Amino acid sequence: MESIYGKLIESQWPRLMALCLVNNRSVQEAEDIVQEAFVNLYLRHQRHGPVKAPTPYLRAIVTNLLKRGHRRELPTQDAGASEVSRLPGESELEGQTLIRAALDQLPRRSRTVFTLDLEGYTTREIVCLLDMKPSTVRSHLRHARNALAAWWDKQGKEFR
User: How far apart are CA 50 and CA 39, in angstroms?
Assistant: First the structure.
């Protein structure tokens, strides 16, 4: 059972941290929220047996904690590209000053949607997380891609 939880933590921790960070939580508060979600999952398992779908269950816990204003006394911050790039598993973004600068040029909401998309969340998941219409999510993604392509062109680089 420990190896199953270890693998779940390893695979889901970065995504859940990203979810907290794009919701304007500090790294410290995000870690507290994610840890609380895993504790909740463990206690649920102890009381009622294994959860059939632990990944959506964890996301739901984190989303609920975010909505309830979990530990609001801690300072919050905007989740810019520099915070997201420090997440484990995001080594391809680390040290890429141009990428961070490009992402920082986006409006906050577009950057949030784009960052979640980069993290691998589907449009449907982003809709649920940010309480937006699917067309709004797609619009933010389109505008973010266009803005990044234009910014990248100004830098004399090819945008892929």
Answer: 13
Name the nearest CA neighbour of 65 among 28, 42, 40: 40
CA-CA distance, 130 to 12, in Å (whole number)? 19
Are the C-beta atoms of 132 and 123 separated by less than 8 Å? no
Cα 20 vs. chain centroid, distance in angstroms? 6
- What are the residues whose beta carbons fall under 8 Å from the beta carbon of 116, sequence distance 6 or more? 18, 19, 22, 125, 126, 129, 130
Low-confidence stretches of the chain (pLDDT beneath 50) = 71-96
d(CA 68, CA 113): 21
pLDDT tens digit string along 91-130? Answer: 444 334 566 677 788 888 888 888 888 777 788 888 887 8
Q: Are 110 and 147 in contact (CB under 8 A)?
A: yes
Check residue 52 and give its pLDDT. 87
Is there a contact between 151 and 107 (Cβ–Cβ < 8 Å)?
A: no
Report the C-alpha gap between 4 and 7 in whole angstroms: 5
Measured in Å, how far apart are the chain's first and last C-alpha atoms? 42
pTM value > 0.70: no
